[in-house]
Give the backbone structure.
Amino acid sequence: MGLPGAHTLTCTQWSTPGDKGLFQDGDIIIGGLFSLRFIPPALNQDFNEQPSYKACTGMENLPLQYIYAMVFAIEEINQSESLLPGVKLGYYIRDSCALPPWAIQAALALVGGDRSSCSTSAPPVSAGSRPVPLIIGGASSITAQILSRTLAPLSVPLISYTASCPCLSDRRQFPNFFRTMASDVYQARAIAQLAIRFKWTWIGAVIANNNYGFMAVKVFQEEIRGADVCLAFVETLERQNIVNDARRAALTIKASKAKVILVFTWYTDVRELFQQLDELNVTDRQFLASEAWSTSGNLLQLPVTFKVAHGVLGVAIRSSPIAGFESFLKNLNPSRRPHDDFLREFWEKEFGCTLSSNALLHKAALPPCNGSETLEEVQNLFTDTSQLRVTYNVYLAVFAAAHSLHSLLSCPNTHSYPGDTSNCSSPENIKSYQLLQQLSKVNFTTPQREPFYFQGADVPAKYDLVNWQKTAEGTLKMVLIGRVDGFDLHLNESAIQWSSGSSKVPISVCSTSCPPGTRKASRKGEPVCCFDCIPCADGEVSNTTGSLQCEQCQPEFWSDEEHIVCVPRQLDYLSFNETLGITLTAVAVSGITLTAAVFVVFLRYRQTPMVRANNSELSFLLLLSLKLCFLCSLVFIGRPAVWSCRFQQAAFGISFVLCVSCLQVKTIVVLAAFRSARPGAGTLMKWFGPRQQRGSVCFFTCVQVIICIIWLSLSPPVPEPDLDVPGLKVTLKCAMASVAGFAMVLGYIGLLGCTSLLLAFLARKLPDNFNEAKLITFSMLIFCAVWVAFVPAYVSSPGKYSNAVEIFAILASSYGLLVCIFAPKCFIILLRPEKNTKKNLMAR
């Protein structure tokens, strides 16, 4: 009893008014959620009426194909004799309107049993209102997360066909979630592998402003880490502000040097982005597409896409044929499915007629259908079965559910809960938690002869690689160019048509790869992909493109002019064939000739007073030693050998000691002769006669001989390349193993020279008309000056020029002695013979 005028209590539980979905009764009912319509109704925010989720509008053709893929799979299973024999599957398919609230409402209606009225005495549950033990749906990752968390306490399995967020793989958060769509991790890694494979080091990214886009960028960056690939920029697109966001992204793309752009967002966002790029006349970019838009027929058909985005390289959900499905779709007809509201709505939209009996009341603008309409000639996304991608995922989801039911119904059941007495052979007693357990263990071969199993919530990742190519008709077509199996990439590079229209791989770099012979040098404050190319230093090479550092050549090698390879170093030494060697040889031979000529003159005029004065023996010995000095200079020219390295220093040291010893003895003789002229000093010359003079020269020379013998016996010079000096040419020289030995040789010569200079200086003012002490003083001044300058010049001279300095010092000092001592005498002997008399020489 109620109050007068009161209405029967009615309410809505888990249902959408005016939209009951698509139902087919069976022993077991499988639920389906599809985003069939994309235009939500206007919601009343005034709170003046009871809130409800009204039906959406704007039916899409492709989701409708997904619905009938589920219907087709269930009918195929019902006709199978091996899969669920004797069990008829039914379905209850609802529209989720692509919005989480609508999806939750529809899902709860499916799992709770759809009752459109409630009262104090509810009617018995009809066949069409039985709760479903499993739902195929959750088109987006967000919707799948919400549905999974909502249904998890009820242990209702949810099998998604397009949710790809890696977060859904977490079994702790989503224990009841399964999917036939691979995780986005795999496609992001596949795109990263493409970037690495084609050496694109500077890539721009345009992503959706949600987890789908951010996850893709994160995985992409993880995969390219260490591969010298960088993101030039990351622009986000939000659907609520798509025009402004797309304009901003287009301006960034135009301003960037990145020629390859990764786009990870929905095709509707991509369409606006292409529109903005067209307005900015940006037509030379190579796009990398995610599966969300790589197979979009709508985008392919747009003229702006042909201008802006030909050559797109993308990852797509794996396509697989479904035998008999095309025929099934072509034969659909509302006359054979009178209760199919989805088909009725599609039919009326496609053929522009109405099937309703009250057509004049509801759709006066549309004529009634005449019954001759057929889908045989219809070409749209609903009837196109050339590439079944998401459709195939729906198909697999139905078979996964069927095989788990088959395992549950055909084997003894293990009770999961205490007190559970259900029998697995009875379809009426199917429990959701039992089905959830069986789904985790399902393993079967699909009708397409492919193995199918779940790895947790996921299936093994399989993708197609597609390329948008131009056709002769001025349109774009999608061409299969490879595939992705897990983390393995299989690609036919020769089949790719790039954005340039050619088969040449586009270049997208911040800095051009450093050629061989150079190395990378990072720019301060910029990514590692932006760098300068620095030429390798001398002695270093880099033989590969993009070297991080130059490698030092081995000591025996040096870099070539391009700094690409290490080549053997060329041995260099002072040779007789080069200009310097020829010049020094000519000067030395001239010195030898001149000394020989003086020797001949002195020998011919040996009885003259000029020659006999001051011991002619010492003069001849001095000339001999000078000739040896000139000769030893020639030993320093030519390729150093073991014998030459030992002989040259010994010959040089002994020859000069012999020469300086003769001068020292001659100076002593002059001083002794002057002192003997004084009273009481007559016996001085007796004690320093010719025998003593010769003995003195031999003694001084023997000391040097002993020094040389000890030096050359213990640590002689050996021929070695001077590898410490940089350059392609390395000097082959006599390396002083013992610097002390060489210093003693030079020191002894210097000691005798200084002594001779001192004695000659003391005798320079003796009252003879021809005072030889003066000549010796000048010669020894030149000798000492030359050898004092020799030491720093020798040390600082590089390579073979150190030998040239030593030869110059030998020749200069030898010429100084020869000219200063013998030139005045030869002048008198040859040109002033009247002065070559004892009287003239003794005159004061």
